[in-house]
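Re: your question from the hallway

Yes, I did run it. Sequences:
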Amino acid sequence: MWNLFRAEWTKTYKRPANIGLLLITLAIILITFVAQTGIALYNGKEDTGWTAAQFAMMFPNGFLFPSIILSAIGSMLAVVFMGNSIGSEYSRDTWKVLLPRRARRSDFIIVKIAICLLFMICLIIISLIFGQLMGLIGTAILGGTLFDFDSFSLGTLLKSLIPVLLQLVVFSSITLLVTMAGRSTIMGIVFGIVGNTIFNLAMSFSTLAAKILPNAHISNLEANWLYTGEEQTMMFEGVDRVFGTHISLSTSLMVVAAYIFGSIMLGILLFQRRDMAGQ
Amino acid sequence: MSGIAITAEGLTKVYKKIPAVNNLSLHIPEGTIYGFLGPNGAGKTTTIRMLLGLIRPTAGKATIFGHDILHARKHIAPYVGAIVESPAFYTYMSGLENLRVLARSGGQDLPQARYDELIEFVGLRGREKDKVKTYSLGMKQRLGVAATLLNDPKIVFLDEPTNGLDPAGTVEMRNLILRMGQEGRTVFLSSHLLYEVEQVCSDVAIIQKGVTIKQGRVRDLLATEGGPGYAIEAAPFERAMAILQELPQLKAHSFDQHWININAEPQDVPNVMRKLVQADVDVFQVVVRQRSLESLFLEITGTGGASAQQPLAEVVVGGR
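Structure:
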């Protein structure tokens, strides 16, 4: 299994589409910091924006922008990655050279899921480091304190990434299933991206949809795990409004787990039973 | 040859009620280069895909070295290498990286020396670090051969390995196949190029519409299906034909107004000539007409039309 993992990782970091995903993410982060620094410089030192920009970019606040960007596009990146990872084996017809080499087909899918997770974690870490570096450069240009180590908490930073990871795991699992069913990269990616939007729309219209679909349950988990006190109460109010009732942590956990493991299990089952009759 | 490498009994694959492979039976001895012939759509690739576990048979059973292809893949995978249809690679990686990825996908971490050996074997030395997207079709085919040999397989499946190759590439591929055979591997070769198959294969199976219609050693098939005959050039043509047709055992026939084909044993030839000469027929040439796999294939599959009946240039041994 370790050698299969290494093989998959080689394909992953060499695949131009994945390098593209990383560069796009970094470009968005770069643009954000350049814009922030540029606007502050344009408005001048007397403007309140100057101090706000300094504060936002100094360590550890510089991590905030990448994490906001990742929470906005993270699941999309995971969907594209997963769709491409599985779909390209169909479009290149490489399953036919891979499958006869191993007895168990499920190994390939398990490794692809693990690699997707690893790639996304690497992308998050690189984005955070890059974002903070850009932040420090921005702060250096504007002048002022670069570091505020007292306000840095690794635990808080990691906790803020939990919803990002949950989102991307759920939607990449669904993408895995759809790509496998449709044997198509495009179908997997389109469904993964459009599905997320449709799910969000559906749960804003129907409390039943909110209870069935994963998005509101991820928000519920977020409210339970990430917030305390008044903030948590406010979050619960919002989530309960979407559900139309209070949903317990364990229920949400089960629903999210069902989406993740259900999609993966179905995908593997489909992959094992399906004929590889070529393109 | 120590045993049977591949067996298939009643192997069947049905797609939407249409049988792609129908009740196919195979017995392939270990260590042979086995030709698997059939017209387009005969079910060759479907059979290979079934044997490799890529598709499930609708019915029947097949084994590789005695292991069931469906339920004992872990015993089969280490011994099998394959090129199925066109070679498929990750074009954004180099040839060497592709080989490494494929070996690792099969659970093997091979030493660099093994890759060097394979690259040397298929003649890709100097290009192994170039991206596969820069390779010609012939180079991809050769890289495909290297990929099949990564795990030092006992059985190699080659599905149309000479497709799209130029004459030089075809000769190179033929030599590679022969070398695989010399190394003691069983080679299961599916090809349209019957001349190529005849050059390298000791045994063949001919399938049509998913059914095996002939199977056996090449020389036995060619001997039993008609055997050697003679082509006679004589004039006047009509008179010569009439005389020869008086002897039904000769099965005299012609496809032009020039050559007459007969089936005869060598000891009967002087007698036939005597009859022609006595009837005032001028005999210009008598040449041995040996059957080729191609003519046998076209005849029994009925795919050659009129051309199947033509005495082809290469079948006339000792002709002009």
